[in-house]
Specification:
The chain is of the alpha/beta class. The chain has helices at 7-11, 27-38, 67-84, 99-111, 122-131, 145-148, 171-181, 197-212, 228-236, 248-251, 254-261, 273-279, 288-305, 326-332, and strands spanning 13-14, 56-62, 88-94, 116-120, 137-142, 162-166, 187-193, 216-222, 241-244, 268-270, 282-285, 315-316, 321-324, 341-342. Helix 7 packs across helix 8.
Length: 344
């Protein structure tokens, strides 16, 4: 099958996220649990370091608590702490999936004149951009910055007080996985939350690749978790495989999705590993811990070295891995070909 390149990956400067092996070796495996604990607290203000005489206040706004975002937050904290030690105070807050709460959290960061804001997920980034044009903002777990910032001519640098890292995996290769795992596919259900613009962006890109391969598809969108089960129930009656992009609302409710798709033997290809681990079949995986870690290194450049965030390229994960959920594959009767790793 011909391969298709994702234009955004060539537009941004590729960052070798895998070079983040300098992070503590055990951290990636423990990141979801550790980050979940970290997201529930705010650390006490740190004293200025004797070496630099400087201290920094960093506000973290995470859209919702789920494993991928938790891991990105933990990676960010670990990277900043590794370089700047206890000279940094982290105010780590979780919006519990509510965009309005993101705005409230970030307005507090602005009022307290924090030195930098980490916006974990697109709604958090959009709230930060609306709140300040002065404080440097770094995004992580944001798929497409052009979409998030409403910039039609986005070229890899924002030109404003925003940079960060993208969790966009090669969407053409994700579409290839559909044919690889379900060779007789007739119709694909594309499921995402209508309130998440980056989910729509991914859906539209995958649809282009499905068109090129002559595969039928239909979008099934839900407004929030309240109508998710009914939408999934409708979708499984009209498809033989489901695709879900890196959608935060879906990621937080994969058990609900699996409770419908598994009894109907519907394979689900997911945008990221933690979604797959809970209720999907397979994914082309990146490490969200490494993504957050790379964002933390960007933060160090801004805080300690005076880097101009407006001129800092959006960075992308360079390493991807095909992974699958063995329990899900066994339950729905899909044989996994060679080249896939089992999600532990």
């Amino acid at each position: 099958m011909k391969k298709k390149l994702v234009a955004l990956l060539t537009a941004g400067a590729m960052l070798a996220v895998t070079a983040c092996a300098a992070a503590p070796a055990a951290a990636p495996a423990a990141a979801p649990e550790a980050a979940a604990e970290e997201s529930a607290k705010t650390e006490e203000p740190a004293a200025e370091t004797a070496d630099s005489g400087k201290s920094y206040k960093v506000g973290i706004c995470q859209l919702v608590q789920h494993s991928a975002l938790d891991a990105a937050t933990q990676g960010f904290i670990d990277a900043v702490t590794e370089d700047l030690g206890d000279s940094v105070t982290f105010d780590n807050q979780n919006a519990q999936g509510d965009s309005a709460t993101c705005a409230t959290i970030i307005n507090g960061f602005v009022a307290n004149e924090y030195d930098l804001i980490l916006a974990n997920a697109t709604p958090a980034l959009q709230a930060a951009v609306a709140a300040t044009t002065d404080i440097p903002i770094l995004g992580t777990s944001v798929t497409d910055y052009g979409t998030a910032l409403n910039m039609t001519d986005f070229s890899g640098k924002s030109g404003i007080n925003v940079s960060g890292t993208s969790d966009l995996a090669p969407l053409d290769q994700q579409e290839d996985m559909i044919l690889e795992l379900v060779p007789e596919v007739q119709k694909v259900a594309i499921l995402y939350c209508s309130a998440e613009p980056n989910s729509k962006f991914q859906a539209q890109q995958v649809e282009k690749y499905l068109d090129e391969d002559g595969i039928a598809y239909a979008e099934y969108t839900f407004a929030d978790s309240n109508d998710l089960q009914s939408v999934v129930t409708t979708a499984v009656n009209d498809c033989d495989v489901m695709y879900i992009p890196t959608d935060n609302t879906a990621a937080s409710n994969m058990t609900v999705i699996a409770n419908v798709t598994v009894p109907n033997s519907i394979p689900v290809i997911c945008g990221e590993e933690n979604m797959t681990k809970v209720g999907g079949l397979a994914t082309l995986s990146i490490s969200y811990y490494d993504l957050g870690y790379a964002t933390g290194k960007q933060a160090v450049e801004v805080l300690a070295n005076g880097a101009n965030v407006a001129e800092m390229e959006i960075a992308y994960a360079s390493a991807t891995t095909k992974k699958y959920n063995k329990d899900n594959a066994d339950a729905i009767g899909v044989k996994i070909p060679e080249g896939y790793e089992v999600i532990e």
